[in-house]
């Protein structure tokens, strides 16, 4: 596994238990923490790590594969775009309820990222693994300062799933009012959802 330095953060909450933030973990240690909290989610996280390695090794090095990967993910992003438009018309306090409604018919494993701390300044909804926040339709690179999470999600410091990681795990829900708390303000550049 690449990026196995001990500078990752796992932020999670299981049910109504107290939210937990564990800092300075390697990728392997992060996998262990998630697996201990929820073994099934831990297995999905291991599978996601394999997909990340394939993307790095096979997709990035082949321009044709890069285009195909982008087109596939972009077609999946339409749902996020539509839900994002719906959320733009709501007050922040209604966002969780609306996303919960979406999860009743869609998959869990999503994050709602906000431009400012305390869930302010506009937001973007992510449920699709996305390699570069500079690209449309998200265009949210190095911008997130707070967030809400449903299921398992990983934010990466750099594009193409590299750099520091912030594992945001909500079983079923978790929120961080200020990414300064986890030293991840304005640095998210790619995203992996754990369906």
Indicate the topology.
Elements: E1 8-14, E2 20-25, H1 27-37, H2 39-59, H3 63-88, H4 95-105, E3 110-116, E4 120-126, E5 146-158, E6 162-176, E7 190-194
Helix pairs in contact: 1-2
Q: In percent terms, what proportion of residues is strand?
A: 25-35%
User: What is the CA-atom radius of gyration, in angstroms?
Assistant: 15 Å
Shape: globular
Structural class: alpha+beta
SSE order, as H and E?
Answer: EEHHHHEEEEE
Mean pLDDT figure: 92
Number of strands: 7
How far is the first residue's CA from the last residue's CA?
20 Å
Number of helices: 4
Helix content: 25-40%
Residue stretches low in confidence (pLDDT < 50, at least 5 long) are none
Q: Main sheet, how many strands, which sense, barrel?
A: 7 strands, mixed
Structural commentary:
The two termini are 20 Å apart. α1 (27-37) packs antiparallel against α2. Strands 1, 2, 3, 4, 5, 6 and 7 form a seven-stranded mixed sheet that branches. This protein has 195 residues and is α+β, with helices and mostly antiparallel strands. The protein contains four helices and seven strands. A hairpin with a 5-residue loop joins β1 and β2 (20-25).
Search tags:
31% strand; seven-stranded mixed sheet; 4 helices; alpha+beta; 195 residues; 35% helix; single chain
Quick overview:
The chain has helices at about 25-35, 40-60, 65-90, 95-105; strands at about 10-15, 20-25, 110-115, 120-125, 145-160, 160-175, 190-195. It is an alpha+beta fold. A hairpin with a 3-residue loop joins strand 5 (about 145-160) and strand 6.
